[in-house]
Amino acid sequence: MLTGASDESGPRQAGAAAAPIPAGPGTMPERQSGTGRSDRGRERRIRLAGQAGGLPIRLALPVALAGGLALAAAFPPVGIWPLAAAGPALLAVALCGRSVRGALGIGVVFGLAFFVPLLSWLVNVAWYAWAALALAETAVFAVLAVGQRMLLQLRAWPLAVAGWWVAAEAVRARWPYAFPWGRLAMSQPGAPTARWAAIGGAPLLTFVVALAGACLAWLLLAPGRGPGPARPGPARPGPARPGPAPAPGGRPRAGRRRIVPAVAFTAAAGLALGGPLLPVGRAAPGDSAAAVAAIQGNVSRARNLPDLLRAATVTQNHAAATESLAAQVRARARPAPDLVIWPENSTDLDPARSPSVYATIQRAVDAINRPVLVGAVLQDPLRNAGQLWLPGRGPVAAYIKRQLVPFGEYIPFRGLLSRITPLTALQPVNFTAGHHSVVFRAGPIRLGDVICYEVGFDGLVSSEVTAGANLLAVQSNDADFELDGQPGESQQQIAMARIRAVESNRSVVYASTTGESAIIGPDGAMVARSGIWQRAVLTARVPLRSGITLADRLGSWPEYVITFLTLAALAWAVAAAGAVTAGRGERARSRSGGGPARG
Prior knowledge:
- This protein is 43% helix and 12% strand.
- The chain has 15 helices and twelve strands.
């Protein structure tokens, strides 16, 4: 078990550990009143996980480092999902007993160890983009870590710490620039825990995983011995206080102190791993199936191509792949799909303004003779859209991306930043966001679309399902993040799409320009999958589910409730800590002669 000194404990006086502890009524001023006993009891309760079991700072920092690296390894491309509980466990162990400054330091070490490898794919855009985002996320995480340190003072701190992870993720998904990467829930596709997402969405799944990690930390912090040496203090006259009677075996209460955390960890881990027993993921009467196709046309990896040439080439690649699929269908080498999905940015030239692009897309749609969802950049105003094209008719409906990428599709504080750096010129005009969900109709298919970054936001995906979608599409463009063959960004988004499939009990078609692309079943299983930097055509027959899961019915309420209760617990912990500090001050003044004079 982990034991050691806290960085908050004061220096020990030489020989103080051997000083006898006074006993008997009247030997200490504070024992003469019930208030003193109440203060000491409150202080003992508030220190349950604080100073009692904290590691020395020289050990806490490596533990925080190991925790951040472990949590990063829970996500793709490594993807060892049990480490999603180990990371929070090690963070709680490292935070135990820290001061505010110490908690900030632990948060910085853990945050850097987590976000730097998690976001390493950003180096393909620019090293400074990688550094800036990792540092910004670390700074937010470190400040929030102080809150977890306060929660560790409560009796039910494992529950409070699990809630802290939900609240912290809610903050990072909204502020300072919405960025929901690194949520515990999104490390769990394919894990037994994943089905909890169908009950309370990603926030409940995060809570369950974090609770297992917090209970593991409780077990690690459980004392390995009976009561330790007395707190040092000046010797006072009076009879010695008898110590606790030793239990058989010589370690009083040590076994019992371990039993409760061990039982709690076993229960929490069993709860998390019991996901397959949940009554979710079932088909409803009347549900059908449909054949779908995802087109990955591929993109040139050369950076020096003129923009117009690159855009035209990308569209031609996707059209050619679709026409190839049409030829295979005519030859009966593949079944005809009911719907074809192209990725985000499959045309960066507005078809309404470019007759050649319009003709290229329409020719491919007519060849396959099926509805095709095309990712297009539209002008006046500038928008990122998914357009549904029909044979012989062209585009008939469009979904406009609602959650734009900060510094990618819009520049926050553009006027201020343009005075500091010329990099704002890389995105000279902000995109305009959409404002509502759109459900495309194609035969029995009711398609809900989200575009790339949007898959990380709970409400956007859920809104498509509650609007009537029985199939989900995620259109993505990962070319900028995979120039050096690093599939991390694409794999992390596919992991999110798999959790969304379980959460809403819907099949998901994930189409990327360069890969990875995938077709995902309602249980989150990978039905078909491509590699990166290759042309690929994925086809599969998938269920069309119409039922609404409890998670989609509840919407954001699980996150709101857990966050509110966590904030209430934090307020309680802060108030209790303040009361203990005030009590210490009163006792210190009494000992120094501030009390009534004695005759």
